[in-house]
Amino acid sequence: MEDERMKILKMIEQGIISAEEGAELLKATSDAQSHTQTGDSKKYGIRHFFDDAVEKIKNVDLDFKFGESVQFDTTMELEPGEIKDMDLWIANGSLKLVPTDQENVQAKYRVKVYQVQSEREAKERFRDDGEFSLQSGLLRLASPSKQVKADIELKVPNQSYEFIKAHLTNGHLESSSLKSHHLQIKTSNGKVELQDIRGESCKVETGHGAVSIRKADLETCHVETVHGEITLDGQIGKSEASAISGLVTVNHVGDRAYQGYYKASTGQVQVTVPSQKQINGVLRSHLGKLNCRLEDHVVLKQKDEFMNKLVEFEAFAEFENSFHLEAEAKTGSVTVNTGDKQFS
């Protein structure tokens, strides 16, 4: 359970939970491990522990009961200019990032400002707290106040960017047809949905929220979540996915993939391997089943002990290039398929 303990410590460091709450969750982790080892599934276990933790995360900064609020819509535009990088930071609200054929940058806001008495005061607070600028190739959009909830649709030129960084505390992020050499996304409470993205590296972290990356064309992709499902689909060279509580599903398309590392603590791991590749795999689980559904695969090593299940295998030795796979589910099952089979 060391990985789970590190996750909790990280949540404390980031302010998602207090030190006192973190101490209780760490104690619950130790209790859950003890109960799992004794086989008593009726007592307080890891799944119940994370359900409790999730309720805490879900309630962090949700709608900020700050009393009276004023809501309004507004649109801002920036003159065309060279854009290499983006720095996007929203403390309370969602972001939809939309590449378009237009040269200028446009941000459409739906804003709710708390603890104000009039629309004029709300707009002044919004203007003073936020930032929307383009300087020296850096596009910066910021709404750092928790008392300002801003749901934003950001339209940017359809081009390839060097680096895009987005951080949302309480809200989801979605984008499609995005091209960036390096993409880094982090949400504390909100899902991330990306489709048809291209680049060298993509890193996504969520506290509470599913991550869906579909039709990807990436050299590397790293995804972590405390609570939420992870779905990866596309041509990804090296991919890593880790969920403490949630299903991990990976569908490799084509033959670009060469390494994959996947882990779920309380959920399942399901992997569709790339085509035209020799497969070298290691599957592990404490309590779940290990299912290798690749035709004519050869088992090199196998263990079926309590709290220690392992299958090491090879498949499709006729192909020159290889794909190395490691998948682990502590309490759930691990299943490996080819693209012509469906998960049951």
Please explain how this structure is put together.
This protein has 4 helices and 23 strands. The protein is α/β, with parallel strands linked by helices and 344 residues long. It has 3 domains: 2-58, no CATH class; 62-160, no CATH class; 191-344, no CATH class. It has a 23-stranded mixed β-sheet that branches. The relative contact order is 0.11. The model is unreliable at 35-49 and 55-65 (pLDDT under 50).
List keywords for this structure.
single chain, about 350 residues, alpha/beta, 23-stranded mixed beta sheet, 4 helices, 23 strands, about 15% helix
Mean pLDDT over the residues: 87
Distance between the termini: 28 Å
Q: Output the structural class.
A: alpha/beta
Q: Beta fraction of the residues?
A: over 45%
Q: Which stretches are low in confidence, meaning pLDDT under 50 for 5 or more residues running?
A: 35-49, 55-65
- How many β-strands, per DSSP? 23
Write a concise synopsis of the structure shown.
The chain has 344 residues and is of the alpha/beta class.
